[in-house]
């Protein structure tokens, strides 16, 4: 049965059943595949025939996961990687060469910042940062050698938003490749490709898995663009493992219902914290106080599961609050069923200078709260007792 509904697609898209007529897709733990004869082997390696030749290239489990993600994002094709950062590195590596220039949102994950400043810079790729809250500045940064516009929205951990339709029009006007890290929103809340992006990237480690079990990433786009990604990835080897692909594909079956609860809980936490005297600032896309609230409402279904706050008292205040939490986990991860607290300045974004962190809104008192699926009363009670210590 064909369906346009997210939940049905995520649950019912499945690799072809074997002769065993299994109801749940099996795990194809194989590194290689058998060919019927020498001619079939030749034709598969020559791309004259579709099929699996080696699990670094493709596997039934990764193919099922990619197919689901393509249908949910509105993409034509994709490639699954071992981690979210592998997805970003592979995208940069596939499309950038020495002499190229990137415009990136200033608010990016710490490891993405390291790729731009310390890795691709060694290979002659330059970049300029632009602020998500100053869209009027982006066009002025485009140079003759600009190849790519890269953006996280919502950003990590600042929860800043930029209008993707605006960026899509800008990229089209200047013939730029628009790449969006859609990790925080997931395809359930936001589909960048439908808003003008050429490529959408996910760290599937986060909400796609949603239970803190496996690592993974995925790159989605047109067949033409993904062909370039595959050409790079087949030789650089960042492929997702079959087992992790199986886990992630199964996890997609519950993504919608999980995100509904993440978003419901996160909004209630944000509304509670906005009134708390020990909290200097609350950032959440669906709070009317968010600077880009109207943009978030336009391009996102709900506000996501992450709330970033600034606790009064700087790093000492943030540490006291985090150490006082009893149910929340202190972890560098996010998007788990379990609520998590992270201090970005000393962990995920510690490699940025203090000046760089301040520019993107990461203060010493900033705490990223990944709101889980526990009962909302227990989540708020834990936060409340930690703030009263």
UniProtKB/TrEMBL annotation:
InterPro entries in the record: Cys/Met-Metab_PyrdxlP-dep_enz, O-succ-hSer_sulfhydrylase, PyrdxlP-dep_Trfase, PyrdxlP-dep_Trfase_major, PyrdxlP-dep_Trfase_small
Listed EC numbers: 2.5.1.-
Named cofactor requirement(s): pyridoxal 5'-phosphate
Pathway the protein takes part in: Amino-acid biosynthesis; L-methionine biosynthesis via de novo pathway; L-homocysteine from O-succinyl-L-homoserine: step 1/1
Record carries keyword Lipid metabolism: no
Oxidoreductase as UniProt keyword: no
Quaternary structure note: Homotetramer.
Functional note: Catalyzes the formation of L-homocysteine from O-succinyl-L-homoserine (OSHS) and hydrogen sulfide.
Family (UniProt): Belongs to the trans-sulfuration enzymes family. MetZ subfamily.
Name of the molecule in the record: O-succinylhomoserine sulfhydrylase
Organism expressing this protein natively: Pedobacter lithocola
């Amino acid at each position: 049965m064909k369906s346009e509904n997210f939940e049905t697609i995520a649950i019912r898209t499945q690799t072809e059943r074997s002769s065993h007529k299994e109801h749940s897709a099996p795990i194809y733990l194989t590194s290689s595949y058998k060919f019927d004869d020498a001619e079939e082997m030749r034709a598969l390696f020559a791309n004259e025939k579709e099929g699996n030749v080696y699990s670094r290239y493709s596997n039934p489990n990764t193919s099922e996961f990619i197919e689901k993600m393509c249908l949910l994002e509105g993409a034509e094709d994709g490639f699954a990687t071992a981690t979210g950062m592998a997805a970003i590195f592979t995208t940069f590596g596939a499309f950038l060469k020495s002499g190229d220039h990137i415009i990136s949102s200033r608010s990016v994950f710490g490891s993405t910042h390291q790729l731009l400043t310390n890795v691709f810079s060694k290979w002659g790729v330059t970049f300029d940062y632009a602020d998500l809250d100053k869209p009027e500045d982006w066009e002025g940064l485009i140079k003759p050698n600009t190849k790519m516009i890269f953006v996280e929205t919502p950003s990590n951990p600042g929860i800043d938003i930029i209008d993707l339709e605006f960026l899509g029009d800008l990229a089209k006007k200047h013939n730029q490749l628009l790449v969006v890290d859609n990790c925080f929103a997931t395809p359930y809340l936001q589909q960048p490709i439908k808003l003008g992006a050429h490529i959408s990237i996910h760290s599937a480690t986060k909400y796609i898995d949603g239970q803190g079990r496996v690592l993974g990433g995925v790159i989605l786009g047109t067949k033409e663009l993904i062909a370039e990604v595959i050409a790079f990835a087949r030789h650089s080897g960042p492929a997702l493992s079959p087992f992790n692909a199986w886990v992630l594909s199964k996890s997609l079956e519950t993504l919608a219902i999980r995100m509904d609860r993440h978003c419901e809980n996160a909004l209630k936490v944000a509304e509670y914290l906005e009134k708390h005297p020990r909290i200097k600032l609350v950032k959440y896309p669906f709070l009317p106080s968010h600077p880009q609230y109207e943009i978030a409402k336009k391009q996102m279904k709900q506000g996501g599961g992450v709330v970033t706050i600034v606790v009064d008292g700087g790093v000492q205040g943030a540490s006291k609050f985090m150490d006082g939490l009893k149910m929340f986990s202190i972890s560098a991860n996010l998007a788990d069923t379990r609520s998590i607290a992270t201090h970005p300045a000393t962990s995920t974004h510690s490699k940025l200078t203090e000046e760089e962190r301040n520019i993107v809104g990461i203060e010493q008192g900033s705490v990223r709260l990944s709101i889980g699926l526990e009962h909302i009363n227990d989540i708020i009670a834990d936060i409340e007792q930690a703030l009263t210590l």
